[in-house]
Amino acid sequence: MNRKFTYFGLASIFFICTAPARSQTAPTPKDTPAAEAKLPTADELSEKCAKGSGGKDAWAKLNTMVITGTVDIPTFGVSGKVEIFAKRPNKILRTTNVMDGQFVQKEGFNGQAGWTSDPQKGLRAITGAQLEQVKVESIFDTDAHLKEVYPDLKVTARTKVGDREAYAAVAHEPGGKTVTMYFDTQTGLRIAEDSEGPDETGTVVKAHLLFEDYRAAGDIQLARTIRIEAPNVSLVIKIEEVKFNDPVDDTKFAMPASTTDSGQPH
Question: Residue 259 domain-assigned?
Answer without folding.
Answer: no
